[in-house]
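haha ok so turns out i had the wrong file open the whole time. this is the CORRECT one, sorry everyone. sequence first:
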Amino acid sequence: FLLTRNAMDPHSDAQDVPRCDLCETAIVHNYCDFCHVNLCTSCIGKHISDGYDKHKIVPFQERRSTLIYPKCGIHQNKTCELQCKDCNISVCSTCTASNRHKGHNFVEVTEVYNEKKEIIKKDTKELENLFSPTYEEIARDLEKQLANLDGGYEKLTTTLSKQGEQWHRDIDFVINKMKSEIDEIKVKHRDILRKHLDEIKQIQSLIKQTFLALRKIEKSTDISSTNEYSSKIREFRKFPPKVQVTLPTFIPKPIDRKQLYSWYGQITPLSISTKENELSLNQPNTSARDLLDKPEHVATIQTGYLNLCSVSCLNEDKIWASGTAKDINCFNIKGVLLQTVKTAFGMIPHDIAIDSDGNLLYAFWTVSIVKNGQTEVLVTMQGWAPSNLCVTSTGDILVTVFSDDGTQSKVVRYSGSSEKQSIQYDRDGKPLYSGNARTKYITENRNQDICVADFEAGAVVVVNKDGELRWRYSGHPSVTKNKPFKPRGITRDSQRHILTTDLYNNCIHILNQDGQFLRYIDNCDLQDPFGLCVDDNDNLFVCECTKGNVKKIKYLR
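then structure:
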């Protein structure tokens, strides 16, 4: 194989030594880090003869060590060495002085490059060491189930056939028993007929004897025998009853096949159980990320809402936002409007959420989902109305609801349109949530805890997946945060942190999964923080209610 390959490939010899891409014969000594071309010493001059000043010739051992800066799309012959944090685009030095970027914050693109490289390195490690082996294990398990499929169904049909054989034996037993009963009835029938026949024959014999005696007397002239005759005709006039014994009949019962099917047995339906993978519930140490000492405001999206209430996204490519308006809008990180959804009947949505497929859900008097541009009502309620909602890791929908009279609140879990769980009281029968129609944003943590920001109660209320109270958080003592703690939005990240907005103190509280305060985010000039969410990459997006802005904040290393 090696000889065949070498004969066809001029870039390889017996030791597979790299060859020059230009002459294809000489051994490579250098490399153009801009064009990604192997070069021998003799071909360097030829390669750079086009006069293009971007060629970067380095020793072959140092290849791919030169960073290639993007060209500015506005100013020709300029390279972008800076990144605009507000617009999240690469810019050149001339761009920074333009009105478009006036007052914006900039960082070197190499800083962003190095951060992304670390993320890529981490993601690569996770893919190689965690995701790939886990999915291989899942695939092996499914292949094993497929391999055992025929054998399992063969056992099932064998059991079914054995039941049929038993039924045949039982039916034969019943038939034979009935045949024996018929034979017994037949014997009784014969005995009855024979008894009556014997009685009739006795009478017949007496008649014959009497007839012969009469014939004799009739021919006789003897006075004595004639005068002594006593008539027996009266005895014979009383005929015996005619015996008619009816044959027994078999009355077959109609066969009800449905009932027969139920009597025969039952085939249970397929039971599909989905066990939560340890991968999502218990994040490995390799994924651990620390909080930044100083969170960074990365970008701002101007939504145009007068009162911005909710934000939801899976990544920064599609960021959905809603407020006190009939439209729900989708933006990218640059603030470009991508899509608008008009709510049913022109209602103002209470809250929005995005499922794992990227479909939009919103709540008003019902819970609706938007798929492929079509709106479908998922949940309708009687006596209750939805307030806020979220989508769980298993695809269920958690909804905080309030009674029509505004005196009760609870959390309801839905699977599609079906109610699966209702959470309202603690073990002592006391309400878990304040009884009113005020907003109660909700999220599910990675450990499946259900977390509610109860604005009126001034508390974050957390129950486990079974609805049992785990803890309450009522704020953290602070000299500078002296206004009442009134949580609005709530979300979680990959590290099981819980983040909630503190509306009146213009900050965000970060808690661990057990309700312990970790730190504030209070350095990003937040004003009236309301709804918030964390995307799949742990980027934080926060609504500034009165400004109508969504701010992207980096708070994890």
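DSSP finds nine helices and 30 strands in the chain.
again sry for the mixup
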